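Take a minute with the sequence and fold tokens given here and flag any structure token that looks odd. Thanks in advance.
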Amino acid sequence: MQLRYNFRLYPTSGQQAALARTFGCARTVFNDGLRVRQEAHQAGNPYIKDTDLQKQIITAAKKTPERAWLAEVSSVALVQALNDLHTAYRNFFSSVTGRRKGPKVQAPRFRSRKDNRQSIRFTRSAFSLRSNGRLYLARIGAVEVRWSRDLPADPSSVTVIKDAAGRYFASFVVVVDASTPLPDVTSDVGIDLGLTHFAILSDGTKVTSPKFFRRAQKKLKKAAKSVARKQKGSANRTKAVVQLAKAHAKVRDARRDHHHKLSTTLIRENQAVYVEDLSVVGIGRSRLAKSVHDAGWATFVNMLEYKAARYGRTFQRVDRLFASSRICSACGFRGDRKPLTVRVWQCEGCATVHDRDINAAMNIRNEGKRIVAAGHADTENGCGAQVRPVLVPAPRHETATHPERPAELVWEQAEFPGL
């Protein structure tokens, strides 16, 4: 398993200048490679091989007067920037052809020197950890690192990042054992995510939503106004932009710290964790967008998933179409749809009074345990039908090509009650 460990860097003024020079050279190599491939595509030429592009953009370019300054920085950072372009193209082609799952990936775009985030990557041959605790980077020097914890193994690569707030970080990639099991426990938990309460657990615990962005909104508004009132291109505007970025960074760091602490606690105290697979992108387009993005559900769920894999816990997502708010966790009776204003309801089957969120968390736990035991997620939606009905072969008379419509693969969906 590959993990990332981030540490704060404190480069000197000379090292900052060297880093800025390396950021610019890596960005130039990436843009040059992208431009050459776009021109080749427009001219109808075949796709340029990775090795040929590297010889043209880096090796040959260093010998020209226009790109002679590329020799002033580490060649490893330039090669890694070009590898990022190769990876971006491969992801784009895989997405277009359908081999890559998930959202569609767009074609690579040019990098700008005005981007708020700049980064370069060094492989093992271009960096080393010194005995005095400093990080040596080729053509940059030994940089001071604030070590907050020890690395579990020797890193294979390091990415130096400069964020919008002007802070420098070193992100180490470390290969660790696939699983470091924690002591077994008997408890498991289902988690229902919300806005008023960030997480509602199946044992009745409710974690209040910290709402970091809402609490800092007044300061952020003031900082944004300060930026808007400065003249574009002035030094004062640049300073105001940095102050605004620092305010946003403080909110982001506080949210991430909260997610890390809560996810670690849940993984340590429970043998299995079950959570609803929410469509954050879809909900983020509604009128609740600001609150949804402030909650950071997707980041929290991803933390639960990788920590469960690392520490030998069971993690399972429950389909978002599962009617967790309509089913009685006591008797299994399925009621009607309930508006969000209904927070407490009584089951028509067994007359049990339920807290909406706690009941949903209990149903998520029960459904997650059933999915893990069955080995597949044939979750039922609100109508009582399977979320992903099984596709069955079409009857023989429907598989032929019909003259009144184009040839296509005809599927007949299996019938399920409630559809």
